[in-house]
């Protein structure tokens, strides 16, 4: 449990997918090296029933749908084990909140859009990290089709000894990354300035989509989910007061009347930081924790003075507005293979606690964002730094 633990740890985004997980879905035959990686990492992580996976992978190609399902399940086991065993040299290794690391999803946009009525895919576009995703156009009012994360959550919950959470991509991000055809047509003939038409169309789509996602979240809660993270990497995309207010409005609509621990994770802020969201973001009344990236703007040096912890100045916003809930603080830059020292991670954590003046148990520690672009070895090392840095920060405060 994390309720009274100083600096609890969490993974907030994706984890790498091994080649043996991705090739069967791309119709690419497995090679001996792919199977060797599964064997080596499975043994390293202590994955149960590893021989079942290895026998399955030796088929190499033409996997059935059932066999692909089993491959995905083993991939989730690997992701869970990476989190539970991170920082294996510690007396108590591993992260406190874990999930399946996006192993059961195509990615955070395509999976929900594929399972919500009203969208049509247009084609593949390039994302910030040279990966590609399929952009969709909304052609009619979105409608609920199915709870697209239930099986994933159930499997995670049944295969971890830690507290399980389930991230759900929020309406803000789906709208920002989609074509708004249905809604722009509805607002085209209104007597409004062009900018007002665009925002009105975006707001209507966001809130109607939030209602669909609310049903997905509600069904997860009914089936035992207690920790739900709404992913909003696009929260700062438009950088207007109206859109900042809409982030909170959409969050409240998604969680309206529901009972769980809700958090909001965002990343990719403008170069001047998250200030564009304040104070309007704090109107997300059902949000128990905001998790943001900070390490990618910070110095790699150890130390607790502001000159060294330049990436964490935004945290002063929370103290300035009297925020008293939880914060998830990114302490590892995930878009580089360069690893910080444990001392630098420790001091990032301690500085975050100092400038927010929150109780240590309210400062959650995590990578900046998802680790999908990193090689497994690097991603595992970064998770280990999260665990080790939090441990050293606890010791610096007297071992609480």
Describe this structure in words.
The protein has helices at residues 19-22, 32-45, 50-57, 65-84, 110-114, 150-158, 171-176, 181-187, 194-222, 241-255, 316-320, 342-356, 376-396, and strands spanning 97-98, 116-126, 132-144, 163-164, 166-169, 227-231, 261-266, 287-292, 326-330, 363-366. The protein is α/β, with parallel strands linked by helices and 400 residues long. The protein has a single domain, classed as TIM Barrel. The strands form three sheets. It has a six-stranded parallel beta sheet. It has a two-stranded parallel ribbon with strand order 1-4. Strands 2-3 form a two-stranded antiparallel ribbon. The protein is globular. The two termini are 14 Å apart. The mean pLDDT is 95.
In short:
The chain is an alpha/beta fold. It has helices at residues 19-22, 32-45, 50-57, 65-84, 110-114, 150-158, 171-176, 181-187, 194-222, 241-255, 316-320, 342-356, 376-396, and strands spanning 97-98, 116-126, 132-144, 163-164, 166-169, 227-231, 261-266, 287-292, 326-330, 363-366. The protein has a single domain, classed as TIM Barrel, CATH 3.20.20.
